[in-house]
Amino acid sequence: MSTRIESTRIEVVADPVRDRCVLSTGHLSPRLLPGRPGVVRVALVAAGALLLAGDEVRIEVDVAGAVRLEIVEPAGTVAYGMRGGSARWDVGITLNDGASLRWYGEPFVVAAGADVTRTTAVQLAAGCTAHLRESLVLGRHGEVGGSLHTSTRARLDDELLLAEDLDLSPAARRGWAVLGTARCLDTVTTLGFRLPDDPQTLQLEGPGSIARRLVHEQHQSGLATL
Questions:
Q1: Which residues contact 117 (CB under 8 A, 6 or more apart)?
Q2: In 10 A of CB 56, how many CB atoms?
Q3: I need a surface site. Which of 52, 78, 117, 154 has the fewest CB within 10 A?
Q4: Is 152 helix (H, G, I), strand (E, B) or coil?
């Protein structure tokens, strides 16, 4: 099994004349989309077959200044059976000087036989905001999905705002306190600001919220409107 390590980078800097955007292609190819003033829209398109054994996908997002970056995923991602191998999906986000990020990810499907580690690290300066959706689907239709381990860390300046680790391997996720009979874990996370109070929304100790649904199909969660 060969290892394919490739980094995708999106760098946006606010500018009074024209916001600057630098895009670097890895496993994913970022493509600039039309956007209104003050908003930079970037689509993430797979540059090849994803996600296979040995793949190590790295996505780096760096935004500075009074600009909003919107990341669009035209399609979901499937982690295919890996025959004893494994893969990684690592995201690093840095927001400075009043920057804002909205990233509503499409379903991340972990097929039978896949073994994936997925990490997200967010660093925000005061005054910055992030609005993120992550939809994890365990198995394609009719499958018992493979193994997924996730780790999320978010910091606001020097303070830890969010730390979460999930073991979504087949045996662990069946527990009533994890997924139970659900197949999809759909989550909207806000950092730097809070969602309105709701019985199904967890308010973080600092400025941030987590809205989460356990459903069989992503479209059943209702989180697309948040």
A1: 86, 87, 88, 89, 148, 149, 150, 151
A2: 18
A3: 117
A4: strand
Profile the chain (226 residues) by mean pLDDT over runs of 10 residues. Answer: 77 91 93 92 88 94 97 94 94 98 95 97 98 94 90 97 95 82 93 95 97 88 82
DSSP of 149-173: EEEEEEEETTEEEEEEEEE-SHHHH
Residue in this structure with the two tokens 């400025």, named with its chain if needed: 207
How far is residue 16's CA from residue 203's CA, in Å, rounded to a whole number?
Answer: 35
Amino acid at 185: L
Question: Which residue do the tokens 């955007």 mark?
Answer: 21
Q: Would you state the structure tokens that stand for residue 45, as one six-digit string?
A: 């398109």
**Domain chopping of the chain, boundaries:** 4-225
R_g of the chain computed on alpha carbons = 17
Biggest CA pair distance of the chain? 54
